[in-house]
Amino acid sequence: MATDLFDYFDSVEEYEHYLQIVQSPNWQTELLLTRELQDSIKYDDPSVFKRLRIDEEDEATVERCHERYQAEQAENIDTLLRVVATAEEELRAVDRDFFDEVALRAIRRRLERVDFQKYMCEQLQRILTFLTDSGDDTSRALREFQRAVDLPSSWPPVRAAGACTPGNTNICPDFTLTDRNEDRPIWGCCAGFAKVKVFMDEDIVPANDSTPTAAPAILECADYARYHMSLRPFWNFSITLLISGTVFRVMIADRSGIVFSPARSIIDDAATSGCKPGQRDARTFVRVVRALTRHLTDYQLGQDPSVVPLSRDDLRLCLQLPSVSSSAQQQVCLERPEYYPSYRISHIGDDARQWCTVGPPIWTSLSLVGRGTVVWKVLELTESGRGFALKGDFHLLRSYWRNPLSLSETEVYALIDQLEGCPRGIPRLLCGGDVCCHDADPQTWSKVTVARIRGEIECPRVHPSKTLHRTVIPRVAEPLWKYRDELELLCAVYSIVEAHQYICEHGILHGNVNPGTMLLWRDEPAIPAGSNDWPIRGFLADFGMAEIDGSMLGISDACMQAANGISSRPIDSVPAMDALQFTALELLRAVNAEWLIPHTAAHDLESIAYVLGHTVWQHLVDTPGCPVSLKEGLQTCFGETTVQGIIAQRTNIQPLYWVYMHDTDKQSLLFTAEHVSMALADVLNGLGEELEKVKTANKKKRHHEALVAMYGDAIQSNMDDELPHQDTFPHKTFLNILKKGISTLEHHPEMMKGSSK
After folding, report:
1. 67 lies in the same domain as 203
2. Over 50: is that where the pLDDT of 155 sits?
């Protein structure tokens, strides 16, 4: 057995290179995906093949394809077998008792990448293309598997640049399943993936149900799936063909987890299929490839059945009827590279209106087993004898997956509507409800749920299935970082904090603050002459994770549950993956230590402060001439994707002190001074100082709790005076800091910096 690292690596530098690969941020992401997928993976489920409708192709056609495959692809098959056998032999020669786990991962990755992966993908490309085109009618192939490295665009697609999601990384599966009629296929248009692993011992299926973690190959595919569902609009699940050695499985990921098909061979299933000795049987593999490339529709591959894509010609016709505002019409781009596909949306709850998305989403979630939140700008779509037409001005549409045993966002808005004196920083709901689509019977409507997608029986009381929910708000909205001047930004954040204070005083805690829930209000009505009010400029949205104190609303929790069969508690006790970068430090520490602590208003305010810091930085990055170091700094401060990574980052760099970082280069300092006023910098600094106080108070509290745990209650009374006895970050403090900045800019408008555009 080989027991020397230099049996595998040519130099120390090469070994360190592979160590970097296996310890890269993608491996850190696996830790978070492991937490998300805990108890959410099904193995060896034959329903996967049923969902792919692999038995619906003509038996005679499959038989002819299989015979030709085994005969005409014999050379590629034999090469594949030799590559896998050689790789397996070299892996078995590694002394697993001699090397630690990290070194073993580096060795394994080295063996995978020394020609084996390349040779396997070359043979598989020929095999997949052959099976796609084999048959009586080669023109019927709708899609094909392409090497992902050959795609002309990186991930995420350039045309989705307006959909800002922190923590994006460049990932690359081995093959993408793309439409053949796509003139320039990009990642955002792929219908699925294929991932190739050299070794057959990937341990896809755990030895027993108590295994706490998923195999690395599963986590890697799950990472592709979450990006796929985030960046391909209105995609409800993602399909991956996972090939390990000569064994394949089909993986389907949705918002409730992952389902795997039974393992089958890409060459020979004869041992389990009952074939005569000496005859190979890979018919299941043939059926799966042909179903994916030739027979399944986009809806069967994951597209939302309640949504219809609109072509550019459709959109052009919609604009010909003069029923849409001129300002909205100017924002509908029909030519590349600004063009982004539009979609027709209908049947939101009981509302019969239809909507058309315009441009890329304002915010896109990156969670997998989560809510999958996406925020769009939409226009109403009307239908007449002359066809479809866009109507009115922009609205804000939010789509997410909810727990049916929790209050929906629509129901929370109904509670807010009962309150008096609601500030304008809280929008009114135009319509909302669970999403429905036609069932097999065109006269029957059914809710879009994960259970329905999986073909499972709905059992809402015992096993509640996530349900797709949408809301429409009659406001023209933009991301905060598109502010036109600093006064607009500070007024927007002031109105958001004021709105948050109001709902907290009435028993509603938002619980999910991130850049997708704090938005600019572009069509705010003019303030009456003589009024002392500030313009609102911004609003707080997305109450889908709100926690309700029924006693403060005059409604008991028991009454709410009896009336609706629901709970006021939100579904997720762990912050969503896409909101982690803006989560309060105390909550992150609790998640990391697996503690349960209550989510408080102060936690939300800390998140609002982080969003403000991110907003100013993102605005700078979008400004022409921004130094590369500032762009890299934004990624450093807000690009971490794991709980541990974000905690470590917060320890080193406070997200609100970046303006004053002592190691910032001179070019970045001058650029920041040119585009960030002292008034805004003082606001960030003031909020940063308050959060440092919060951090100190929480540290004292943790210290006290540790001492009590170690030495008992005897020291309790001696330390009580050292603990904070009031909210360490109240709304009043936040509002006063913002008010000072607003007042400074109002009295000294010459200080104010303008738009990046």
Report:
1. yes
2. no
Go through 730-744 and write b for each residue having 16 or more CB atoms within 10 A of its CB, e for each that does not: ebebbeebbeebbeb
Note whether residue 147 is domain-resident: yes
Contact yes or no for 2/95 (Cβ under 8 A): yes
- 703, 704, 722, 700: which is closest to 713 by C-alpha? 704
Q: Rounded to a whole number, what is the largest CA-CA distance in the chain?
A: 93
Q: What is the DSSP letter of 159?
A: G
- The runs of H, that is alpha helices, within 639-722 are 643-652, 666-675, 678-711, 716-719
Per the listing, tokens 């503690």 go with 595
Tens digits of residue pLDDT in 186-241: 656 789 999 998 887 666 777 665 566 788 889 889 988 988 898 888 999 999 99
Tell me, yes or no, whether 252 and 206 share the same domain.
yes
Q: How many CB atoms lie within 10 A of CB 397?
A: 24
pLDDT (tens digit per residue) in 378-405: 999 988 777 788 888 899 999 999 998 8
pTM of the model: 0.87
Question: Are 308 and 189 contained in the same domain?
Answer: no
**Among 342-351, 466-475, 522-531, whose mean pLDDT is lowest?**
522-531
Task: Judge residue 323's burial from the number of C-beta atoms within 10 Å of its C-beta, 0-12 exposed, 13-18 middle, 19 or more buried.
Answer: middle
Q: What are phi and psi of 410, to 5 degrees?
A: -60, -40
**289 and 368 share one domain:** no
Shared-domain flag, residues 295 and 310: no
Task: Give the domain-ending residue among 427, 453, 476.
Answer: 476
Residue 469's beta-bridge partner residues? 400, 434
Residues 335 and 248 in one domain: no
| Partners of 262 in beta bridges | none
Bridge partners of residue 401, in order along the sequence: 468
pLDDT tens digits for range 470-491: 999 999 889 999 999 999 999 9
Answer for the pair 81, 105: CB distance below 8 angstroms, yes or no.
Answer: no
**Which pLDDT band holds residue 565 (cuts at 50, 70, 90)?**
very low
596: phi then psi, degrees, rounded to nearest 5: -110, 115
Of 476, 500, 517, the domain-final residue: 476
CA distance 69 to 290: 12
DSSP conformational letter for 439: -
Pairing of strands 547-548, 342-345: unpaired
**CA angle at residue 550 from 547 to 551, to 5 degrees?**
130
What pLDDT, on a 0 to 100 scale, did the predictor assign at position 188? 63
**Residue 482 lies inside a defined structural domain of this protein:** no
Residue with tokens 């309700």: 548
Considering the domain architecture, whether residues 60 and 133 belong to the same structural domain is answered as: yes
User: What domain range is 425 assigned to?
Assistant: 304-476
Q: What DSSP assignment string belongs to 457-489?
A: PPBTTTBPPPEEEEEEESS-EEEGGG-SSHHHH
Domain count, the chain: 2
d(CA 419, CA 327): 33
Residues 224 and 335 in one domain: no
> Residue 150: inside a domain, yes or no?
yes
Instruction: Tell me if 75 is assigned to some domain.
Output: yes
Which tokens hold the place of 193? Answer: 């993936």
* Mean predicted confidence (pLDDT) in 649-676: 76
